[in-house]
Q: What sequence folds into this?
C-alpha cells in the first residue's frame, strides 16, 4: 500500500489571507486618521466659537436697532438694555458668548453710543459675565476665546473679532473723540 502523505498548504498559500487582513487594516486606519484630521483640525472649534459669538453680537445689534426704531431712534437705557431686548423677544441664550463658561450675558453696552453716532463708534462688546452691563474699556474681556480676542459690534452694524490687545487703543467710544481707550 502506497499511501500518499496528506497534502498541506504551502506557506505561500497560508500567507495570502494574512497579507490581505493587514492590507485591509491599514486602509481602515488611514481612512480613520484622515477623517479625524479633517473633523478635528486644531483651531476649528475656536474659529467656530469666534464666528458664533460675532453672529450673536450682530443679532443683538439688529434687535437694538429694532428697539430704537420703535422708540424715537433711541437705544434703551444702558442700565436695562438686556431687559429691553428680552421684552422684544430676544432669547436669553443669545446674550451668552458660546465660548463663555459662565454668566447670563457676556456682552456690555457702550453708554456713549446712540443710533445717530458715527458708524465706527463701538456699541456692544464682550465683557465679564453679568446682565445689563454697560461701560467702557474696563469691561472688555478676552477670556471667552481659547486664543484670546474679543468680538465687537459697531453702531453701523458690522462686527469684528480682534485678537491680542493692540486694538484697544484704536476703539472709538464716543463721537467727540478720535480713537481712544478712555470710555468714561
A:
Amino acid at each position: 500500500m502506497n499511501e500518499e502523505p496528506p497534502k498541506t498548504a504551502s506557506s505561500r498559500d497560508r500567507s495570502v489571507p494574512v497579507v490581505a487582513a493587514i492590507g485591509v487594516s491599514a486602509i481602515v486606519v488611514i481612512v480613520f486618521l484622515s477623517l479625524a484630521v479633517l473633523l478635528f483640525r486644531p483651531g476649528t472649534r475656536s474659529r467656530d466659537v469666534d464666528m458664533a459669538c460675532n453672529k450673536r453680537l450682530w443679532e443683538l445689534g439688529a434687535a437694538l436697532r429694532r428697539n430704537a426704531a420703535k422708540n424715537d431712534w433711541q437705544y434703551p437705557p444702558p442700565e436695562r438694555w438686556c431687559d429691553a431686548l428680552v421684552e422684544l423677544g430676544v432669547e436669553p441664550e443669545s446674550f451668552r458668548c458660546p465660548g463663555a463658561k459662565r454668566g447670563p450675558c457676556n456682552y456690555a453696552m457702550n453708554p456713549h453710543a446712540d443710533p445717530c453716532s458715527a458708524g465706527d463708534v463701538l456699541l456692544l462688546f464682550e465683557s465679564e459675565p453679568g446682565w445689563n452691563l454697560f461701560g467702557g474699556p474696563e469691561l472688555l474681556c478676552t477670556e471667552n476665546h481659547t486664543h484670546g480676542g474679543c468680538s465687537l459690534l459697531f453702531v453701523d452694524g458690522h462686527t469684528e473679532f480682534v485678537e491680542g490687545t493692540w486694538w484697544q487703543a484704536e476703539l472709538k467710544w464716543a463721537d467727540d473723540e478720535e480713537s481712544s481707550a478712555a470710555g468714561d
